[in-house]
Amino acid sequence: MTGTSTPCREHASNAAPVREQTTVQSRIDGPGHTLVEVAAPDIAARIEPGQFVSLPAPPGHGPPARWMFSPLGVRRTDNADPVLRLVAQRTPGGALSRLEPGQRIDFIGPLGSPIALPQDADSVVVLGVGHTAATAVFLTDALRARGVTCTPRLFGTDPAADTPWRLDGGADAPLAQEQLPAPAEWPVLVRRMLDETAADHAVVAGPLPLLHAAASVCRESGTRCTVLLEPFMACGIGICLTCVVPTAATDTTEPHPLRGCTDGPAFPAEVLDWDRLLTGSGVRT
Q: 199: closest CA among 152, 155, 265?
């Protein structure tokens, strides 16, 4: 990627993560997803799109001891501390579906690095799939607040399931869901998306094969592309090295591993070694 890149929000903070005792304010259960709002003023005040938080895994679950969640956004109201919004697929004993309003829980964050976009990015298209679209929603809000033209394309994997970012929005929620086509159509989908928006940058969150398709199409079209990986993370702070991401050699650099938790989870598509990612590098697909 050429040119200068900056985090998507103008006042980025690279401060160390903090451990914060938070309070669950509300929980909304849909047919397939759970939305939780948590009073976490220190973390919510600093977290940016691309970053995530960790919270204890439910009792009885194996390693890792903490689970990672990318926020759907931060709700800010007058005369009140900012509230962190999290969404996840609804599963029995899941880390969010077991939380109750008023419950205290130990959070660590912000973790990871904010999404960095070139300073000259004028038009951005953001593609997100299912619960992994949380970052896409958060990024859309942040870019629009900065006056950057941002077009979200949000996809569900099951037409019968609820839309996670609309659990509390009703029929008038501003972000619509589309049905994700079959994998064979993903390159066509990305080409159409770029043609329709004329965006100069694409940010994609979803299954690894979709990220690869987007990276390939963007490379062919000369569009800059950032992808959100979901590597397995045990610690989230760069110590355990379970989330190592392989990179490709360039004219000026040798391949060197990056950590999905601290260097990512957002990466410029061109720095990744896609062959190794797609053939089993430990990255969840």
A: 152
Rounded distance between C-alpha atoms, residue 159 and residue 265, angstroms = 28
Query: Which residue type sits at 234?
Result: A
233 vs 67: CA distance, rounded Å = 8
Measured distance CA(239)–CA(137) in Å, rounded:
29
Q: Tell me if 70 sits within 8 A of 135, measured CB to CB.
A: yes
Q: CA 50, CA 90: separation in Å to the nearest integer?
A: 22
State the DSSP string of the chain.
--S-EEESSSS---PPPEEEEEEEEEEEE-SSEEEEEEE-HHHHHH--TT-EEEEEPPTT--S-SEEEE--SEEE--TTS--EEEEEEE--TT-TTTT--TT-EEEEEEEES---EEETT--EEEEEEEGGGGHHHHHHHHHHHHTT-EEEEEEEES-TTSPPGGGTTTGGG-S--EEE---GGGHHHHHHHHHHHH--SEEEEES-HHHHHHHHHHHHHHT-EEEEE--B--SSSSSSS-TTEE-B---SS-----EETTTT-SEEEGGGB-HHHHHTTSSB--
What does the pLDDT look like over 91-108, one tens digit per residue?
777 788 889 999 999 999
Q: What is the pLDDT of residues 35-76, one digit of tens each?
A: 899 999 999 999 999 999 999 887 777 667 888 999 999 988
Q: How far apart are CA 238 and CA 180, in angstroms?
A: 33
